[in-house]
Design brief:
The complex is a heterodimer of chains A (364) and B (284). Chain A is of the alpha+beta class. Chain A has nine helices and 22 strands. Classes of the chains: A alpha+beta (364), B mainly alpha (284). Chain B: GO terms for molecular function: ABC-type sulfate transporter activity.
Chain lengths: 364, 284
């Protein structure tokens, strides 16, 4: 079921939680709403669910599920599944009764027979790999198990739209990773439309078909994870999607200077701020005629496929982060306190006056 | 024995002050609670069982049990409904004057019960504000068991509100929302999700209100009318015996009230323990 939001806005008292928003989500899509806290992403999700009402303005907002106008439809009649961050399981009911709840509250006409309910609940429990815990109570389960129960409970009523509010936010890293993969798998298998909220950019990029980046009640960009990472529309999106190093200084005659550091760069004269990702910083033992950016290593942490190196210098307001391959790390024999030279491989700038971002690569 | 030894040395206990605080607690309970009760049984010792039985099964006394228990049951049930409603309103909604209403809830505890009794009696007497309105309609409240129940409800409502309120606060609104997103109507969500959660607290609160009503004296005595066999409460029977300097008789009746209250509280505690274990992960 596709979802269309038209001119949806929301006020809480005097604060504007959502500026008028338009958003189209295609059928079968898995969409992530990504943003810092207070960006309005949860409010938007709750409005889609019907747990919150959009503002009544001069041009009233509209919510469509496919062709069905659900703007004024109560949450219980919208045929959605909602998964809460803190599970919101019914603590006095067994796992089985929790999952069966949505089926047992159906009107007598639409309610399946008790045998059919039983079969359906066990099929769902099998899907979330919890059939052996059907008689347990929520308090006897781990966080990850509880969230799987809450997912099975939401899916029991065969919703057309599945909405998840920070579904993995309360779980530890490893369980989160596992559940993410599992949700992606489930989504592909059952082919419903899903919208989930997260503040974790890695989660959004890994899980979503498309990501909606939000800040201050506005949509900043809607794109596939790949396009989002490669071509961020503005500085907020770029900074929110990963670690960023800032290089700030004055450009004159094609040379950017900042304290005792300088760097040849093809930009007009004036004040400039350039942004670099950690993997766009190269480290060498000697400066070149093109660049002279002396830095000192203050911390080294070998994490996964790369080594993360923290760099400081008196011409830098904030320390830089560089990621180095293990072979380079061994080759340079990096250690704390060592003085090196940084070379930007690639950078971006988001001038406030121009709407278009500039980027430039240099063969290093 | 070995356990005693570790208690004495305190080697396994990190929190300090167990000996002192426990000692003072036991002493306090003994002085304030156990000593008077022992005194009560001491009075009873002067009676043979036949005498004891004769006192507590005397017609007028038995009638007072009926009035007291009946009125207390009605008051407790009424309080269960309205106390739950009040707790719900205080927890779930924001409105001007919420703090004031919350504070008002404790008024029956703070007010001398005799003051409440006199106020209720003048209000509901046939010449009072309420009595004047209700009497022509055929409702007689003062000097009937309805008046007794009313006075009991007044003094015991905080028990229900104050036991249900924290449990309701503990139940996140998300749980209601989950029930509704699964298609439950308001009524079904309340009956199947909210009520089972607050049920133990509601039963405990209602039980406490009931037990409190069994022993209430000051608030009731002015509105009850105190007609033998009709509107005499058990607490009044004790008072009457005391005025006749019949301490043993008073103690005998008091012991009945004590046993009923104690048995009820114990039963609620045991039942609630089993229920709570289930919510917190026990096998219950």
């Amino acid at each position: 079921m596709s979802i269309h939001l038209h001119n949806i806005a929301k006020h809480f008292g005097n604060t504007q939680a959502l500026e008028p928003i338009n958003l189209d989500i295609h059928e079968g899509e898995l969409v992530g709403l990504l943003g810092p806290s207070g960006s309005g992403k949860t409010t938007l999700l709750r409005i889609i669910a019907g747990l919150e009402n959009a503002d009544h303005t001069a041009q009233p907002g509209k919510i469509l599920f496919g062709d069905r106008d659900v703007t004024n439809v109560h949450v219980r009649d919208r045929r959605i599944g909602f998964v809460f961050q803190h599970y919101a399981l019914f603590r006095h009911m067994s796992v089985y009764d929790n999952v069966a709840f949505g089926l047992t509250v159906l009107s007598r006409k639409r309610r399946p027979s008790s045998g059919e309910i039983r079969a359906r609940v066990f099929r769902l429990l099998e899907m979330v790999k919890l059939e052996h815990l059907a008689n347990r109570y929520p308090a006897q389960l781990s966080g990850g198990q509880q969230q799987r129960v809450s997912l099975a409970r939401a899916l029991a009523v065969e919703p057309e739209v599945l909405l998840l509010d920070e579904p993995f936010g309360a779980l530890d890293a490893k369980v989160r990773q596992e559940l993410r993969r599992w949700l992606r798998h489930l989504h592909d298998e059952l082919n419903f439309t899903s919208v989930f909220v997260t503040h974790d950019q890695e989660e959004a990029l890994e899980l979503s078909d498309r990501v909606v980046v939000m800040s201050n009640g506005r949509i900043e960009q809607i794109d596939t994870p790949d396009d989002l990472y490669r071509t961020p529309k503005n500085r907020f999106v770029f900074e929110f999607l990963g670690d960023v190093n800032h290089l700030e200084g004055k450009v004159s005659n094609g040379v950017l200077t900042c304290g005792d550091a300088y760097w040849h760069v093809d930009l007009p004269d004036g004040h400039e701020e350039l942004l670099l990702r950690p993997h766009e910083v190269r480290l060498t033992e000697q400066p070149t005629s093109e660049s002279h950016l002396p830095v000192t290593i203050t911390a080294i942490s070998p994490v996964g496929a790369e080594v993360r190196v923290e760099l400081e210098a008196d011409w830098l307001a904030q320390p830089w982060l560089a990621t180095v391959r293990h072979t380079d790390f061994e080759h340079l024999a990096l250690r704390r306190g060592q003085r090196l030279f940084a070379h930007p491989r690639h950078w971006r700038r988001f001038p406030e006056t121009e709407s278009k971002a500039t980027e430039q690569s240099r063969v290093a | 024995m070995s356990q005693l030894a570790t208690w004495r040395t305190g080697s396994t206990r990190v929190l300090p002050g167990f000996g002192l605080s426990m000692g003072i607690s036991v002493l306090f309970i003994s002085l304030v609670l156990l000593l008077p009760i022992t005194g009560l049984f001491g009075q009873l010792a002067g009676l043979s069982f036949a005498e004891y039985w004769a006192i507590i099964t005397e017609g007028r006394v038995v009638a007072s049990y009926m009035v007291t228990i009946g009125a207390a049951a009605v008051a407790a049930l009424v309080n269960a409904v309205f106390g739950l409603l009040l707790a719900w309103v205080l927890v779930r909604y924001e409105f001007p004057g919420k703090r004031l209403l919350d504070a008002l809830m404790d008024l029956p505890f703070a007010l001398p019960t005799a003051v409440a009794g006199i106020t209720l009696a003048t209000l509901y007497a046939s010449s009072g504000w309420m009595g004047r309105l209700l009497e022509p309609l055929g409702f007689q409240i003062a000097y009937t068991w309805v008046g007794i129940a009313l006075a009991m409800a007044f003094t015991s409502i905080p028990f229900v509100v104050r036991t249900v309120q924290p449990v309701l606060e503990d139940l996140p609104a998300e749980v209601d929302e989950a029930a509704m997103s699964l298609g439950a109507t308001d009524g079904v969500a309340f009956r199947r999700v909210i009520l089972p959660h607050i049920w133990p607290a509601l039963v405990t609160g209602t039980g406490l209100a009931f037990v409190r009503s069994l022993g209430e004296f000051g608030a009731i005595i002015f509105i009850a009318g105190n007609m033998p066999y009709e509107t005499e409460i058990t607490a009044l029977m004790i008072f009457v015996k005391l005025q006749e300097y019949d301490y043993a008789g008073a103690s005998a009746i008091a012991s009945v009230v004590l046993f009923v209250s104690l048995a009820l509280l114990l039963a609620i505690n045991i039942w609630q323990g089993r229920f709570v274990r289930r919510l917190h992960g026990g096998k219950g």
